[in-house]
Amino acid sequence: MKSAESSHQKCDKSKSASLKIINSRKMASRLWTLFLFLASANHVYSAPYTTHLNRSCPYHNSCSPGVNQQHIERLLSYVDNEKQPCDDFYAYACGKWREKHGSDATATTMSEAQINENYAELFAELRHNSSYFEFPMFRKLATHFQDCLALDKPHLSRYLELLDHKLPESLKTTHWSELLAVLGQYGYHGHFVLLEVRWHNATHHMLFLLPHNHHLSLNLTPDIYDALSRHGLSDGAWPPYEQLREQFRLLEQNLTSLERSKIPDDSFTNRSLEEIQAEVPGVEWGRILRKQLNRTVGGNQAFQVDDLAAIKRLVEYLNQADNLLLNRYSLARFLSHLVSLPHNPLAEWSPGSKSLSLRCIRHMRRSLYLPMNYVYEHRFYAHRRRADELVIHRVFEQLQGQLELNLDNNPLNLSQELVSSLKAKVHFMRINVGNLPPNVSEQFYWEVDRRWIVGHDFYENHLNSLLFYYSVVSDLEGTKNQTERAIWYSFNMHQPEFPDNIDATPYFYCLGDIIFVPYSYVRLPFFHADFWPALLYGDLANTLGHEMMHALDTDLVDYDAWGHMSNFSDQLVLVPRYTDAVRCLNDSAVMLNERAADVSGSRLALHTYGGDWMDNPDDGRLYFLQFAHFFCGDEGDIYHDTGSQRLNYALSQVPKFAEVFGCQSGTGMNSAEQCPFW
Fold first, then answer.
1. Any idea which architecture 384-456+466-661 has in CATH?
2. How high is the pLDDT of residue 21?
3. Which residues is 210 bridged to in the sheet?
4. Containing H/E element for 205?
5. Which of 55, 167, 204, 454 keeps 20 to 30 A from 632, CA to CA?
C-alpha cells in the first residue's frame, strides 16, 4: 500500500528550514480559504475551524503539521454543509464522499487497493533488484508471482497429476477415508466426515471430528468434469457428464437423509481416539490420522467431537456404498474447493486479462499469508514500526485501564465474582501491531522459508502453499515446544479459506483474547503517529475501544481471558440492568454485538480521552469528523448495518456529540433514550 509517506521516500536534508516554512504557510493558506468558503454557506453549522485546535503531540516530541493539515483538508472535502449534523451526521460528514470516490469505495477498500499497489511495485522491483534475495521469502515469492502471471487456459487436471504420488493406484479399491486423509493434508475437509485441526484457545490447537456438512453441495462444472475424466485413476471410463451429475446428486441426497441427531449445533464433547474407534469401528482412525497429519496419534489423544452418532451412521452408509463413486465425488469436491478458494485466478480466468497481476497478488496474500506479510514488513513498514507501536500501545493501555475502572464501578450491578472474571479478560488482553508475530528473529523466518517449497508452475505452487499452511497447523496441535507456541499464538495466520484477505481494520480475536491491528490500518486516513489529539483519538481510540468492547459484547463475552468458553452470559441474563440495556440496544440492528461495540466503544474512548481539550469546539467537531470517516461509503453486510446507521446510532448515544454540535433534545442525533450498555 501507499503509506502516509512512501517507504522509499528520503528526507532531503539539503532543503532549508525556510522552504519548509513557506510550504507550511501555503498549506495553511489553502486551508483557510477552504474554511472561509465552508463558513459562508447559509446554515447554522459549518465545518470546524483550526484556529484553536490542540496541536500537541501526545506521545512524541513533535508532530508534523503538514500531515495533520493535509488530513484535515481531506476530511473537510467530504463535508456537505447543506446538511444539518444534528439531523443526520452521516449525511453531513460523508455527504460528498461518493462524489469524490464513487459508489463502491470505502476507506478500507481504498487502503486494500493501495496495499496491492505496493505489492505490484515490489514485484516489479524484484525483477531488477536481487539484493532482497539475501533475505528469506523474497526469491520464492518472486518465482511464485511469475508462475502465476504465466497462467494460460485453466488446466485443472494438473492439480490431479501433482497428487499422483499421494493418491492410490485405483479409486475403486482405495477406501474412501484414505483419499479423504490425503485431501486433508491440503486443508480440504468438506464432506463425508470432517477431520481437521482448529485453533482451540489462546495456547492450543485441537483435533475436531464432525459429520458431513449437509449445507454444502457440489457444483460439478464442465471444466471439473473434463479434468477428472482426463485423469488415469478412475478404473474405467467416466460416465457422461449429466449422468455423473445425477449420481452425485443422489449421493448427496442420501448423505443429507442421514440427519443429525436432535442436539444443538456446536454441542462438542471431548472424546479420546480409543473411544472414537470403539464407537465407530468402521474406519481405521489411527491410520487416516497418520496419513493426514504425517505423525502417529496415540489412543489417548483428545478430540472435540460433534454428534458421534451421526458420524457412525455416515460411516456405516459409506462403507456399503460404491467406493469408486465416493472417490470420484471426493476428487470433484476437492477441485471445486481449490477453484473456489478466495482470489484463485483460475476462477475468473479469461484470455489476455489485464487484471491477472492483481488477482495473483490477492491470491498470494491469501494462500501465502506469512511470507507475503514478511516481505511487506521488510519493504514497506519496518521503518515506521517503532513510532507506531509507541502510540498504539500507549492508547491501548490507557483504554484498558479505563475499562477496568469502569468495571470496578459496576454500573450494571454485577456480582463481584463476575466483575473479577471480566476484569481479568480485559487485563490480560493483548494487542499486536501488524500482521506478523512480534519480536521474532530472522531465524524464525528462515525456518519458515525452508518449510515452504516453490515448484514449477502455478498449480504446484498452490498445492505446496496449502501443504505448508496445514502442516504448520498440524504441528501446532502436537508440539510441546512452548517457545514455538508463543510465537504462533501471537498473531493470526489466516486460513487460505478465509473469505477475504483485506485485514481491513483492527479486530478482536476471542480465542486468543487479542486485538490485531493490521497493516491496512496503520496508515492514512485511519492513523498516523504524528496526528494531533482530535485526529488521533477520533479514530484510533474509537476503533480500539470498539474492538476492546467486543470482549464484552453479547456474543463473545463467554470467552474468558484464556480463550475458554465460560458461563458469563448465563450470569449476565439474570442481571436486570444488563438485560434492560441489551433490550434498549436491540432495535433493528443487523448484528446486536456490533451495535453494542459501536456504542460502548465510543463511550469508552470519550471516557478515556474526553478531557478539557474536547470542550474546544474545533477539537470536538474534528474528533467526530475523524470518527465518521471510517463509515463513509459503507453499505453494510450480513454482519454490519450500513455506515450511516452505525455512525448515527452510535453518536446519538454519546451525549458529548450533542453538546459539541449543540443538538437539541429530539433531533436525530440526540436520542431521548440512552442505553446504559457498559
1. 3-Layer(aba) Sandwich (3.40)
2. 30
3. 194
4. strand 205-211
5. 55
H-helix or E-strand spanning residue 640: none
Q: Where in the chain is the domain with CATH 1.10.1380.10?
A: 157-348
For residue 508, give the H/E element and its range. strand 507-509
Non-local CB neighbours of 515 within 8 Å, separated by 6+ positions: 396, 429, 430, 431, 432, 506, 507, 508, 509, 544, 547, 548
Give bridge partners of residue 305 from the DSSP assignment.
Answer: 209, 269
pLDDT digits (tens, 9 = 90+) for 448-469: 999 999 999 999 999 999 999 9
Closest CA to 635 of 98, 80, 85, 74: 98
Segment 371-420, tens digit of pLDDT:
999 999 999 999 999 999 999 999 999 999 999 999 999 999 999 999 99
Rounded CA-CA distance 480/433 in Å is: 27
Q: Is the dihedral of CA 255, 261, 262, 263 positive or negative?
A: negative
Residues of the chain with CATH 3.40.390.10: 384-456+466-661
Q: Could you say which architecture CATH assigns to the domain 157-348?
A: Orthogonal Bundle (1.10)
Burial of 26 (0-12, 13-18, 19+ CB in 10 A): exposed
State the distance between the two ends of the chain, measured CA to CA, in whole angstroms.
37
Q: Which three cell numbers stand for residue 113?
A: 487497493
Segment 118-127 shows an average pLDDT of 96
Give the pLDDT mean for 502-511.
86
116 grid coordinates: 496491492
The CA distance from 574 to 649, in Å, is 27
pLDDT in tens, 105-121: 999 999 999 999 999 99
- List Cα–Cα distances, 567 to 159, 423, 556, 573, 574, in angstroms: 46, 15, 11, 10, 12
- Rounded Cα distance, 280 and 287, in Å: 14
